[in-house]
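dumping the sequnces here before i forget
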Amino acid sequence: MKGLSTLAAVVILIIVVIAVAGFFFVINSQGGHSTTTTSTSSSFSTSSQASSSQTTASSQISASIVAGGSTFVNPAMQVWVKDFQSNYSGIQVTYSSVGSGAGVNNFLLGAYDIGATDAPPPSNLYQQLTQKYHEVLTIPDVVGAEDIIYNIPGFHGTLNLTADVIAKIYLGQIQYWDDPAIKALNPYFNFPHQKIIAVHRSDGSGTTFIFTYWLYISSQSWRSSNVSYGYTVNWPVDELGNGLGGKGNDGVSAYVSQNPYSIGYVEAQYAIANNLTPAAVLNPSTGEYVLPTQASIETAIQNANLSSLPSSLTIDMTPYLSVFLNVKAHNAYPIVSFSWLLVKVNYTDKSKAEAIYLFLKYIVTTGQTELPTGYLPLPSNIQQLILQNLKLISYNNMPVYTLVS
Amino acid sequence: MITIKRKREKIFYFLLIPSSVVVFTFILILSVLVYNSIPAYEKEGLSIYTKNIWNPISDQYGGLAAIYGTIVTGVLSVMISIPFATALSIFVNDISPKKVKSFLVNLSDLLAAFPTVLYGFWGLLSLGPFLSRTLFTFLSSNLGLHQTTNGPSILLASIILAIMITPFASSLIREVYFQVPRSFEEAVYSLGLGKWELIMLKLSYIKKAFLGAYALAFGKAVGETVAVSLTIGNVLNISPNLLEPGYTIPSLIISQFGTAYGIQYNVMFALALFLVVIGFIFIIISKLILRVRS
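..and the predicted 3d for all of it:
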């Protein structure tokens, strides 16, 4: 029996060793969090291999693309993936609707080939991306808008709001619906003395990014608080006990429809799908209160100053976030923005580079005509800009567009 | 004789596999948690447990609100659950007819096996608004606690948790209660005492096992994720007013983990480690109590 227990001890010891080894394996395989591993090491490998390979017939490319992120773009993406795969049967595309923040994060970790996000990654995150992937393309895929939704029992008609009032609600400076600032915008309704429940996202989200960025550029109160803008912010209203955090656009819509006297922000798609009443928001450029409608969002896109966009999309796009915000045109809805896709520029796998080029080209051309109802296509000059930039996608520093077109 | 012994040895080695998997898993999880927490301790120090802020923009993190919410919902749910679980255990063992007993036992086991997301949605969509109209309104008008939301709050999350852990705690208590020796009952009856006295004496007889059951139930409550996330409101709020929304460590992790990058990622691990420590302490306490009993 003594020999037996010694053996048992040895077995347990071996298992502990395996456990420790497994632990280090796990640590090493998730590189990028604490230790950044660069994937550009193979850039200098044989280019002869590339030049010797022949132009592949597009339909014969066999590759898989793993994409994910934004929940907003998911319905359109599902249509695109299905349509694209019917033309290129060898290319397997999967899209997971996990939220913008997770999309960018998984792209950074290398789990996704394409990260979809409703806001370009913030500057510090973009730096991490370029550190790891050298060059990263940030390209628009569809246009979206954000609705301010509310739940006030007994209220009929249109609620008028300004960026400053919305900012003060989320800062906790306006706490009741009968606040003079709200009454001044809506003199025809007798607001009850009820606390305003400010609903926001509890997960990191592009919707929050756009919303807080819009507040940042439109409201002095928001700028002077140091909340700033990002996928997740520290909401001052939460510490007063008047905030609620919902997971995803559906989480926010559920909380707003469940809680009387609440206010929230969601992608326009969700407001339409869930029959939530949007508020008319003041466009500070024109002084008009505009409801989010297909027409008012289109007006904003058509009149946006697109010439201010850079010619190269391999830079930090955060400064260009405001192209569609507060567009100066009659009846232009103020909170309109792009949804974006993040991709690496250089690949070491030829068929993957080709597949990604083809898929992105499909999205900005044919894909824009296949959009489900409610989505708005990219303006044609933006499409041209993206097509030019897609030519950068390369395999071992050799552009692939010549190989597949 | 020798062949029998060899066979036994083989079985012994075979049995080593599952038990060593437990050791393996524990070491792996704990070391990943500790390893990933270290950068958070280095950068933020202990303020990740003492400050209330969650700001990826300025890279400042402190999960005090989540720690507060975790402990409050855990303790409160156990307190709410105790009378119900105890009453259920007494009822099925000593009072109910046999057929009713097996029905109740099966039903409570079924409730314990329900997916937690069902409890969460039920709490959000139906129990929350109902309590908000009744109990919460009563509390706010009589105790002066201000009620803001139509349900989502620390109290709602605690009540949902209490409902979820009651079948679990009850099944543990029920079994121990059932094992009180027949001779003990006979002794009580021979003294001329009634059923009420018998129940009271039996409860005091098993009181240590009772505490152990609740330590385990507490561990279950503080680890609950989805149901709490749906009913607590997910905001960084530390308030003695239980009708206000709050946060717990698991609901903070489920909300933010997918989108965490940089030091935020490490802070999540440090908070998860804290959760493990809380759970660990309670398991040790419950084991100690159970050991003292036997």
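The mean pLDDT of chain B is 87.
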